[in-house]
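User: Run a structure prediction on this.
Assistant: Running it now.
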Amino acid sequence: MLRIHPFVMGHLIGAVMTGAIAGAFINPQAAFTGAVALFGGALVSCFVCQWRPGVEATAWKLWPVAVLANPVMLAALGFMAADWECVVGARRGWDCLAAAMAILTAGLCLLPPFGGLLWRWWKQRRVPAA
């Protein structure tokens, strides 16, 4: 039977839930797209986290790697860097919509690793005594 590490499981489930809930405020298609996009980014992030620092690493090492290894987060940071004038408020208007969505996406990418850390903590806490 395939055994998935609790951090990976919590991270992936947290990504799907975060994307689906955030997208549900727009419409069902956005909920599906958000769930798939965050799941894909979390999947890549989990592979990187297994390689370095390892899924059993301490939370202060694992969370930053999980966030910064997510390609969705990197794309959001790239959009924010490209439209930096909108991010800092030097330019306003409808042209800044992509920057606003990038800020929202970057914020959403911060949440799924917490789900992984929480699920890992919960599973380690409930280990039966031998």
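DSSP finds seven helices and no strands in the chain.
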